[in-house]
């Protein structure tokens, strides 16, 4: 990408950011549709987990990006644990609601697909922001 003109690189970066915006918007739309189509707003409980998910990363890691490596730091290990617990909760809440008979199969499928679309967008963001030239997806 270094041999491309600056305006072409800027256009490619804008396209990747637009792709991320479309992914996040799609995840939010699936989340809302899971509630609105089945006239049951209980699946919105997973939004609490989506809000809590990045909190340990924001509070405990600081400017370190050493989450993907092995660490002896207790704070980094606590961050990994709390982030993992929040992500498991994002899958467990709709499953528990389905098991309790509160939501149907369609709402469960839309909730889980919303989770996976949002996780995909987070992974794409991490891939793009880990390199100055944005990693090609």
TrEMBL record:
Keyword Cell inner membrane: no
Family that this chain belongs to: Belongs to the OB-RGRP/VPS55 family.
Entry keywords, A to Z: Membrane, Transmembrane, Transmembrane helix
Natural source organism: Trapa natans (Water chestnut)
Membrane topology of this protein: Multi-pass membrane protein
Transmembrane segments: 17-34, 40-60, 81-97, 103-128
Protein origin, superkingdom: Eukaryota
Subcellular location: Membrane
Organismal lineage: Eukaryota, Viridiplantae, Streptophyta, Embryophyta, Tracheophyta
Record InterPro entries: Vps55/LEPROT
GO terms (BP aspect): late endosome to vacuole transport via multivesicular body sorting pathway
Cellular component GO terms, alphabetical: endosome; membrane
Descriptive protein name: Vacuolar protein sorting-associated protein 55 homolog
